[in-house]
């Protein structure tokens, strides 16, 4: 009979240890919930980025206007029959 009380105390201490410190403890659950919130925010950013890229891909596939705009801005291309004018500012130090 004397050994039952110490056994019960040891059992309770062991279970409490797991509850507060061990695997599946309150601290670990709290940390994992924080990780989930951070990951969900990152996923939302990536979804928005993917949505923007998908729209851009669609425009490039089917929209000739966006292709023309990129060619003009990035490559300096002009249409046949257009005249290109380049305005150059005077250098203020020179006359």
TrEMBL record:
Keywords: Cell cycle, Cell division, Cell inner membrane, Cell membrane, Coiled coil, Membrane, Transmembrane, Transmembrane helix. InterPro entries: Cell_div_FtsB, FtsL/DivIC. Residues 1-3 are cytoplasmic. Residues 22-95 are periplasmic. It is a single-pass type II membrane protein. One of its GO terms (biological process) is cell division. It is found in: Cell inner membrane. It comes from the Bacteria. Residues 29-58 form a coiled coil. HAMAP family: FtsB. Essential cell division protein. May link together the upstream cell division proteins, which are predominantly cytoplasmic, with the downstream cell division proteins, which are predominantly periplasmic. PANTHER family: CELL DIVISION PROTEIN FTSB. Part of a complex composed of FtsB, FtsL and FtsQ. Belongs to the FtsB family. This is Cell division protein FtsB. It comes from Simiduia curdlanivorans.
């Amino acid at each position: 009979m004397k050994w039952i009380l110490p056994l019960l105390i040891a059992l309770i201490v062991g279970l409490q240890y797991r509850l507060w410190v061990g695997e599946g403890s309150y601290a670990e659950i709290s940390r994992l919930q924080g990780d989930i919130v951070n990951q969900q925010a990152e996923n939302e950013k990536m979804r928005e980025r993917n949505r923007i890229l998908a729209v851009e891909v669609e425009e490039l596939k089917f929209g000739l206007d966006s292709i023309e705009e990129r060619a003009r801005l990035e490559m300096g291309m002009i249409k046949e029959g257009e005249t290109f004018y380049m305005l150059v500012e005077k250098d203020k130090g020179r006359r």
